[in-house]
Amino acid sequence: MATQSPNSPVNWEAVEQSAEFRSLRSKHAKFVFPLSAAFIIWYFAYVLLAAYATDFMATPVFGSINVGLILGLGQFVTTFAITAWYVSHANKVLDPAAEALYDKIEKGDA
Amino acid sequence: MSTIMTVAETAALQIDPVLNISVFLVFVIATLVIVIRASRNNKSAADYYAAGRSFTGPQNGFAIAGDYLSAASFLGIAGAIAVSGYDGFLYSIGFLVAWLVALLLVAELMRNTGKFTMADVLAFRLQQRPVRMAAALTTLAVSFFYLLAQMAGAGGLVALLLGITDKMGQSLVIAVVGILMIFYVLIGGMKGTTWVQIVKAVLLIGGAFVMTIWVMAMNNFDFSALLNAAVATSITDPANAILGPGLKYSANPLDFVSLSIALVLGTAGLPHVLMRFYTVPSAREARRSVVWAIWLIGIFYIFTLVLGYGAAALVGPQTILDAPGGQNSAAPLLALALGGPVLMGIISAVAFATILAVVAGLTITAATSFAHDVYASVIKNGNADPAAEVKVARITVVVIGILAIVGGIGVNGQNIAFLVALAFAVAASANLPTIVYSLFWHRFNTRGAVWSMVGGLVSTVVLIVCSPVFSGGEKSIFPDANFAWFPLSNPGIVSIPLGFLLGWLGSVTSKKAEDAAKAAEMYVRAYTGHGAEKASEH
Predict the structure, then answer these.
(1) Which A residues in the span 47-106 are in contact with B, Cβ-Cβ below 8 Å?
(2) Nearest CA in chain B to A31
(3) Confidence band (pLDDT; 50, 70, 90) for B15?
(4) Is the sign of the CA dihedral B150, B156, B158, B160 positive or negative?
């Protein structure tokens, strides 16, 4: 079942104000927000092309494969790539910082 | 033209209801055994609502795929590609890219802060009662719209797969689906539901994989050759119009843009998707589950692209449109063309399993929200006995199941395709703004949360009622009336910015200070996982 920390109540506000926590939040924000903006812009660029530039999207590139199909599959590729990139960043940068702070709170010296 | 007619006739003859029902029965019996075995350890509320938080990331990734890939995304997208070509493919891209919102912004932080429901996170640092009420309201609304769409879809599917065309027989099958679902969720709780979703995801993705390889092999693994074969049977003018966008949406491209916004922002606000993050032991596992889900869902949509054009090439769009079930029959008819009645029976059973797994996920989400948010937190003021709370959840499951059966029978045969889009639009307009503000904006407060949730929900529903979906067109629900002043069938382009705007406006106009200590606790928990709910020990 859910277990509360065995320590005396944590001073959450002090942790929130700490340099470590602020650095963790900013590391997270600096990674996820620009990336989110990028994939949303790329997605809507694609949607607007599909909605309003149908002739351009129907331009054949090789065989019957056209620009629209390549851009559409490109959305799949970027989605997979962003996923992999985020996971590697989270494992290398975010998780260690979060775990260090977690341990500090456990010991009560945050 | 004559060859197409022959295919249509043999298709009608080769539907073997006994075989289809037999394959489906095997699935039902197998999942029942799994559900009953899984239910043995259902003791606490965390067991019932969150499967004891004991699933691994990969398992939960399969369950998410099983929860998310509804009949609409399997039969609907394959059929839309077979008939409308490229425009059908556009749907699947929105459904996939949407997962990045869940991965980057929502999944881990939600997992660390909440217990069972979306409202746990939203009400964490705000006033419990108003925020929980509003969150329960949007959860129930989204789940019910989605549920109704699935149940009504079951009726159409029955007509196609079992050859049952009379209303009475279809109603009976809808009732059977509903009763089975009630049984799974009642007995198995979240654990049983999750296993049903995992089994279904494996079958669905496996089945699609086999058919994809088959279709590609017939075209020497040359996708361009497959496209040429699809163009050869095309009924559009010009024939190669199916290769580019425009067949479905060129009449009103803005409507399509509006739909796309709702698809990409709605997924991360779907309560039944959010609830799945609580079934794993940690935020890291929540992340792993989303990664697995993204790969599975993405690969599945690539399969549907092949299946859609494959159905166009091998079955032909006219035959598909003429079949009972229309566009939705593309994938089963392709299975028939490839592997005969046996493969069609398997694919049909998979389609049924799909409906069953999705409605089970929706029902447990809605029941949990009612029992945990409305009953325990609002009616009992947070002092409910956990056993009594789970009992309320179980009763709610039965009530929702009965409502779904009655509703499904009621709307059977109606054009309810808008319901899934509506569910996504409400999730994006009412839920996502509140989730994002709660997690990232310190100034956000109770009034902002209530305004954005209630405002997002009401504006979405009002706009769709006042759109061509309900009146003023030949395909409207009320074709003889005309109260449609909103020109788009998809309200997202207005209601989603409105939801964000109301959340901001409510927050900046409210002078009431929220609990700063609670806010600090929420943020520290969200980012570090400190105090997050652990897996139960058995």
Answers:
(1) 47-48, 50-52, 54-55, 57-58, 62-66, 68-69, 72-73, 75-76, 79-80, 82-83, 86-87, 90, 95, 98-99, 101-102, 105-106
(2) B104
(3) low
(4) negative
